[in-house]
Amino acid sequence: MDDGKRKGKAVVVGGSIAGISCAHALIKAGWEVVVIEKSSGPPTGSPTGAGLGLDPLSQKLIESWLGHPNLLHTSTLPLSIDQNQSTDGENNMSQTLTRDENYNFRAAHWSDLHSLLYNALLPTDIFLWGHLYLTFCIGNDKSKVRVKSQVLATGEIVEIVGDLLIAADGCLSSIRRNFLPELKLRYSGYIAYRGVLDFSDDEHSEAITGIRRAYPELGKCLYFNLACRTHSVLFELLKKKFNWIWYVNQPEPRLQGNSVTMKVSSEMIKKMHEDAEKVWDSEFVRIIKETKEPFVNVIYDCDPLQQLVWDNVVLVGEAAHPITPHGSRSTNMAILDAAVLGKCLDKWGVENLRLALGEFQTIRLPVISEQVLHSRKMGQIKQGLVLPNGKAFDPKMVSPEECLDLQMKNMPFFGEIPSILE
Ligand SMILES: Cc1cc2nc3c(=O)[nH]c(=O)nc-3n(C[C@H](O)[C@H](O)[C@H](O)COP(=O)(O)OP(=O)(O)OC[C@H]3O[C@@H](n4cnc5c(N)ncnc54)[C@H](O)[C@@H]3O)c2cc1C
Fold first, then answer.
1. Which of 13, 17, 335 to mutate to test the pocket of ligand 1 (most atoms within 8 A of CB)?
2. Is residue 345 part of a domain?
3. DSSP bridge pairs for 128
4. 3-state DSSP call for residue 48?
5. Residue-range definition of the domain harbouring residue 205
C-alpha cells in the first residue's frame, strides 16, 4: 500500500503468536514493524509447545497472511466434533454427554503454526531474536515511543523509536505492569499436566491401536473426559502425534522463574501416573505414560481489564487478556486482536493513531471481557469446583440440560466476525 501517506512504525514486544500475528496484520496495513523477542531464535521443528485449536475465523486470517490457500490446511488436522463424555476409570467405561458435529476448528501444533507464520514474514529480519525488552518512554508530545532492549548475547543496549508500542509479551506482561502495577493474576485452583505423544515410530503399537479403539474419532474429534472433580482433553495432531491435557485441582504451586509453564520432576511424573490409573481409562493412562517430557501449565486468568490502550501503547494477546484454556480462545483471541488492530490502523492512518487505537479498544474490550469470564466458568464447571450458585458439577448426576452448558459453541461471540473485518 503506497498512497503517499506517512508510514507508521510499530515496535512489537513478544514474538509468539500474538506478536507474529501483529507483524503480519500491520505489514498488510502498510506499517513498518520491528519485533523484539527474548528467545534466542525461531523454533526449529523442536517439540516446543503443544496442540491448539484454530477457529474458522483464525483459519481465514492466517490463510490471508500466508498467501497460500492450502498451506494451513495441509499443516493441521480437522477438529470437526466437540464431544464431552463422562468417564468411569474404575470400570473402564464412558458415556457421551454432548456432541457437536459442526465444530469446524482445526488442530495445530504450536511450533508448526509459529513456523508457518514466521516463514511467511518478509523480510524475517524484522525479528530481533535474543533481545530482552527493558523499558519504554513516551515523548512529551506523545507522538513517539522509545523502547530499550538488551541483546542477550552481548549485553548491548539497543533503542528503537516508533509511533506505536504493541505489548505482546504474554500473560505476565512487564509492559502491562507499568500501567497496572497492582494487577495480580488469579490462580484458577488447578494445574494442567500436558504432553504430546509422538507415535511416528510405532503407529501399530498396542498403545496406539488401543487408544484408537477407545477413541475412534481421533483425527477429527476434540474429546473432553469428565470425571469427579477433574477433566482431561485428547485430540490428534498432524505428523502422528496425540495431544493430551489433564487438569488437577490443587493449591497454587510456586512458579519457576517468569513463566506459568513448569518442568516436571521424575517424582511428579511417577505420582501423576499412579493418580491417572485411579481416574482414567487404561488406554488414556497408557498414552500419558508413554509420553516423553510431559510438562505442567499453572492455570491463571485475570479479571477483565478496563482498558487496552494508554497513549501510543496497546496490549494484545495474553498481555491484554490472561485467560483459562477451556474455550480454546487464547490463540484465537491473539490472532483476532492482531487482525482488528491492523484494520483500525489501516482505516485511520498513523496521523489518527488515537482514533485507531480507540476503535480497536471499543471493538475488542467487550468481547474479550465476556470470553475471559465464560472460560473461567467452564473451567470451574469441568473441574467440579463450587460455582457461584453454591453447587458443583458432577458428571454422574448431571441433567441433559446442564450437559448443554459444556459445549464450546456457548462461548459468547462464538463465530462472530467484527464488522471491520468484513
Ligand atoms: C514457547 C511457547 C509454546 C506455547 N505452546 C502452546 C501450546 O502448545 N498450546 C497453546 O494453546 N498455547 C501455547 N502457548 C501459548 C500461546 O502461544 C498463547 O497463549 C497464545 O497464543 C497467546 O499468545 P501471546 O503471544 O499473547 O503470548 P505468549 O505465547 O505467552 O508469548 C509471549 C512472548 O513474549 C516474549 N516475551 C515476554 N517478555 C519479554 C521481554 N521482556 N522481552 C522480549 N520478549 C518477551 C516471550 O518470550 C513470548 O515469546 C505457547 C507459548 C509459548 C511462548
1. 17
2. yes
3. 36
4. coil
5. 87-108+187-300
> Which residue, 265, 300, 335, sits at the end of a domain?
300
| Cα-to-centroid distance, 256 and ligand 1 (Å) | 16
Residue 37: CB atoms within 10 A of its CB come to: 24
The CATH number of the domain holding residue 234 is 3.30.9.60
pLDDT per position in the chain (422 positions), as tens? 456 678 999 999 999 999 999 999 999 999 999 999 999 998 876 666 799 999 999 999 999 999 988 999 999 999 999 999 998 877 777 899 999 999 999 999 999 999 999 999 978 789 999 999 999 999 888 899 999 999 999 999 999 999 999 999 999 999 999 999 999 999 999 999 999 999 999 999 999 999 999 999 999 999 999 999 999 999 999 999 999 999 999 999 998 778 899 888 999 999 999 999 999 999 999 999 999 999 999 999 999 999 999 999 999 999 999 999 999 999 999 999 999 999 999 999 999 999 999 999 999 999 999 999 999 999 999 999 999 888 899 988 888 888 888 999 999 999 999 999 98
In three state form, how does the secondary structure of 142-190 look? CCCEEEEEEECCCCCEEEEEECEEEECCCCCCHHHHHHCCCCCCEEEEE
Residues 177 and 290 both lie in one domain: no
Q: Both 313 and 370 in a single domain?
A: yes
Q: Is 18 in the pocket of ligand 1 (CB under 6 A)?
A: yes
CA distance 319 to 168: 6
331 lines ligand 1 (CB under 6 A): yes
